[in-house]
Description:
The complex is a heterodimer of chains A (364) and B (502). Chain A has 364 residues and is an alpha+beta fold. Chain A is 27% helix and 29% strand.
Amino acid sequence: MSWRYEKDISGCGLAGIINTRRELINGKVIMKSIALQHDRGNGLGGGFAAYGIYPDYKDHYAFHVMFEHEKCRHEFEHYLKINYQIDREELIPTRTHPKVPTHPILWRYFVTIKPDRPDLKEDEIGDQDFIVKTVMHVNLNIDGAYVFSSGKNMGVFKGVGYPEDIGEFFCLENYDAYIWTAHNRFPTNTPGWWGGAHPFALLEWTIVHNGEISSYGINKRYLEMFHYTCSLMTDTEVVAYLLDLLLRKHNLPRELALKALSASFWKDIDKMDKRERTMFTAIRQVYGSAALNGPFAILIGHNNGLIGINDRIKLRPLVAARKQDTYYLASEESSIREVCPEPERIWHPKAGEPVIIDLEKEVK
Amino acid sequence: MVKSTIPPMFQVVVDKEKCRKCKRCVMSCSYGALGFTDRVVPDDKNCVACHRCVAMCPENAIMINESPLAYRPHASWTVEHRQGILKQAETGGMLLTGMGNDKPYKIFWDHLVIDACQVTNPSIDPLREPMELRTYLGSKPDKLEFETDKNGQPSLKTQLTPNILLETPIVFAAMSFGSISLNAHRALARAAYESGILMNTGEGGLHKDLYKYGERAIVQVASGRFGVHQEYLNQGSVIEIKVGQGAKPGIGGHLPGEKINSEVSQTRMIPIGSDALSPAPHHDIYSIEDLRQLIYALKEATNYQKPVSVKVSAVHNIAAIASGIVRAGADIVTIDGFRGGTGAAPTIIRDNVGIPIEMALAAVDDRLRKEGIRNQASIIAAGSIRSSGDWVKALALGADAVVIGTAALIAMGCRVCQKCYMGKCTWGIATQNPQLTARLNPEVATERLKNLIRAWSLELKEILGLLGVNSIESLRGNRERLRAIGLTDSEANILGVKHAGE
Ligand code: SF4
Ligand code: SF4
């Protein structure tokens, strides 16, 4: 339990690729891209998120779960069987890798929620809320078990090591996805724990994050008001929960939710026309405790696209590029050019202005 | 009257070499501590150490010492206890005092330290980057709703209740006209107006001359209802129901008739020379439901245009009380800790009743969050905020803004002599004597107050910068950035902070 209740302090490298026409990109591409950022990590965490990898089970929730021992796996599976219909369960395929000497037990489960699950008797919550509840329950209460990801037609592969080694360990060359994100981690205060690597995921949302959230204390307390329990080492989890709250629960338009996280400056709000000023003033009044402050660059993957966002004075790097239907986001331009030597357009997104790329749509 | 046998507390020493007998000191002393025969003759027992004479003497010829008179030491029967009993034996009255609790209780601000960025995240330079202190006081909805027009442009659908903008999260304390002079009230009103913060009228109404600053005033409604009428309510931008005051929880107030001159009488709407007695409770609030009625009566009277604050003293069950206040419809809860100031209070009450603001604030912020209603009201913390350091710590514990009373008085010249209840303030603040009030130049006092707000705000920005954040929202309630030094586990737990090193 020593890994809990410690704030994550880390620097990092990020990479993301998306093809808006859902053409599949092989895992080797993202591995090559993030491998170039080797020096941005220290070998204590690497990971990937992939969307579109489970077309045969696209309506199932895919749980990627790590277990520190068999006992917690049994405990987890017992809980799962009560509430879910399991249509497929298997070890996540891995290969023996010299740079990944030890690893936890890694399983994946393709499940649907039982319509007559027992908790319905006490609490009528929707499917997605139930998944969130499951993830929180497992991570908090089943000692040694930790859910990597829980969305549909997507999965998170992560662990302790450099990302290129973790990618090889998970045999990512066998996966094709239309959205990939990758993370190379440089934690300074945390022991090697597989769950602490990025991406951090909840439902279909995955977050890779370079930076430190200096507002963490209040973001966490704000989320607690809405019954999210932030108990992990990584402050990245607040990003995931905030997105879940603002987008799914409060139903905010996406651009505005992102503006709540990376808040506009008052000096800019004061210059807006009345409609916008009213809107953005209210966002800061009501969602001030949700605003993320401190240095960060974040890539957010979800079933319909990829989002990149910076803190509002851009204290961490983020570069974007496009070639035809493929968009790239990364901490370093070199990482993009490594896999796309001649992009049509390459740009540095403005501080606090999100880059939103949707599948089958143009960039905004 | 029999001559008192109580030895003086202070000793006034006039340097005969330096003194050139100009008598300025004699004229400046309103307590009768300085007389003149062929030279300045001090009467030590009347000296309150207000320093007016020291400040006025052109020759630096006056020194005030604590009396070196020895008492046989006794750890239990301190000099103060002995003197108190002697005084009461002579007079048969309650001991009175002014200003806040002066007893050496643990000051939790002094056991909290602030974090800073090093290496893993950069600190931010407030001279180069915007640092935002803007704060809105008032109720906020749980969430916002938007609607989109036919061109796909979103606009705000949720109607927010009125919120008041503060350029920096600080307000002046409730100090009534009557307890302090019109010049002091004027300086507070103007400084608040010009600094984009708020002053608080206190329970004595607002003088007509100051209506022009009303949009930057909290207008108070206290148990005596002095000076309360519809026009007054509509002058302010926030209405405050005063239930209690940190220095004297659970008791009313008493402004002696001598202080009720014609201006005070008109503003308070009571006859000249009559004592202004505020009852201990509001006689229309005997329960939380009654409070709700008064909150809504005031909202009705002002057409739901103004946030309503409820001010209470910090007492044992403050968390539950605050929760009730928020559920009763208050938009702001002002909590006044037991070191909060006063113009006059029984010493025994000031020094023994109530709890520290640090604990009360932390408990209230926690409780409102647990109940999921923290957004429904702003929290203002009062009761001895002595520097921007205390301010930062209060914000980090969860306050939306803090109150400064004593600090504002000191900025105007007050020396914390604690004799405000005598109405003889030599600095022209806590008095209605025209000769004394003339000593306070409202223009100068305004500038000094504005300077204080500016100076603290600069310090606040500097601290935000070293915390690596650039807006006040990221400090508010962020207890993660505080650590405790020298607190017990349960103290640290109540404050919700880790120990240094953790
Ligand atoms: S003000 Fe100073 S110089 Fe003048 S009479 Fe008093 S002590 Fe002497
Ligand atoms: S206001 Fe005047 S009387 Fe009261 S403590 Fe300050 S200096 Fe003394």
